[in-house]
UniProtKB/TrEMBL annotation:
SUPFAM superfamilies: Outer membrane efflux proteins (OEP). This is Type I secretion outer membrane protein, TolC family. It comes from Faucicola atlantae. InterPro entries: OMP_efflux, TolC-like. The lineage of its organism: Bacteria, Pseudomonadati, Pseudomonadota, Gammaproteobacteria, Moraxellales. Belongs to the outer membrane factor (OMF) (TC 1.B.17) family.
Amino acid sequence: MVLCPILFSNGSSAIVSAMTSKFRFIRQSLPHARKGSAQALQVALYAALGCGIAQPACADDLAKTANATSNAPTALSTDKPNPDATPTDTPLVITAPPSPQPVDIAQVPAVEYSAQNFDKVINNGVPFPPSVEVNVPSYLTLSQAQAYLVQVSPKVAADNANIVSNALRADSTRNLNKPVVFIGATAAHAHVDVDIDTKDFKNDVRTDLGNLANPLPVPLPIPVPTPSDIGGLIDDSVPNNISRDVNRNLANANVTVLWSAYNGNRTQSVTDLLNGMTDESRADASLSLDEQYTTLAKRYFQTQLAIMAAYLRNQALHAIQETDHAAQRSLDVGLISRIDRLEAKKALADAEYENIKALNDAQLAMTALQRMLRTPYAVRPTSPLFVSTKPLPPLAYFQQQAKQHHPAFAKVAAKYQQAQALHAFSEANYRPTVTVFGRAQAGTADNWIAGVAANWKLWGGIDRDASRQSSLAKLHQAEFSQVDAADNIMLLVEKNWQSVKNAQQNYIALNTNIELASEMLRFRRLGFQEGVNTAVEVMQAEANLQKAKTEQAKAANDYVQALADLMQSCGTPLAFNQYMQSADIKLPAIYFEQRAS
């Protein structure tokens, strides 16, 4: 049996139940056995889910089918306009389950809806990034949802920005080993206005000359000036005050070259450290993206399960309503007691509550999927729940996949690369540095300087031995972290592998429950017609059948959830699509991807 939503020309919606090529279209959106507030709530919930009521096909309904199919449009009344939709006169068709395609970001259109919508109420000083216009359709396969996720997820965008930042920072150090050339220029104007008092200077000179007034031991044959004569010459030739006023323009240009000819491998260590940080950011981004892919798959199929559970609850409610109506007629003719009738009413009330609860759960699941894809409208999943009865590959295969692809190992390797770079930098403290320098003044060919400077730290500053031991400890930390990560990941893979196998066996085992519940319902209905069984027993059998179907759908969802966890623990979340495509059991889906052309 397969299910398909239909919108009629009068605006009401329904679900087509296809069984042995017989269809029955239910024009009303709700069962009409009960009125009031419960009915109004159901109307709103059915409108939100975009689905209605399906009844088993009957022979007398075949004539109605021909009239109803001519009015079947292509979308539900709650859907947003879809630019990819076919013309309105094209009916919905029931197709085979879609085959997921590889995620190709280039195929994602970007035209209509803004998926990167931000809450402008939040304002803590951080500006909002620019919005990205992405048209996310209302009907999505899982592979399509994965492709749109990388387009609209703010976490993916933030991780990518972090990778770009670290990569550019590492790239900025590529010229550290090359010469550095500086060009310098100076332009200045000097103004000096000063008065120099010479009185004290002249007095000091006179005093010193007076001390030389002692007669010479041998008279000279020429006249010798006396100190008073020399002092007079000083008074006459040296003014008491000297004034200077200087204005001068100064200009200078030079070229300086510095080259760290040998630095003990310090610059390469810095580059290696930054490259390791870039690799770590890539590994973190891969871990985050794998987690988002897994979360998307889980929410996607949880939504599919919730919608199916709501549909099955609605089927059970409709069957119980028919039985309740039959119980009322039996009471009217005196075939059952009033107690039996009240028990039937209670069973109907319980079924109505369970129906509304299932609709609420489906609406919540659709909202969670909608929030993750950041769309302003509900997302309807078209990839059905599935189970593969084929044997899983051996555990060693998945563990080998984890060793090759899990981002945690890439992160540990990046940490080890950083530790190696820090250790190399600490080792450089034991080596000398050699710098070649030169400087020339522009315009004057004779003014230049060139040389070599060598430095070797002998003692003082940072303790080199302690720094070296610290870097060695970082290396050991990375080595032990790799062993610990391998142990944890291998154990996680085995746990998830066992969970998939258990869910697979559980689904197969529940087939017997459905067969038993179906046969029990048939037996109770026959007994009710013969007066052997009560209406409550029939209602319980109907509820048990829908419960068995729901339990099997939950088992299929458990299989899907465990498989998603297994793929994430292997570091290959997109390999989930291959298992989905090759599954031999696909449950009925409410929404379908393709439409008739």
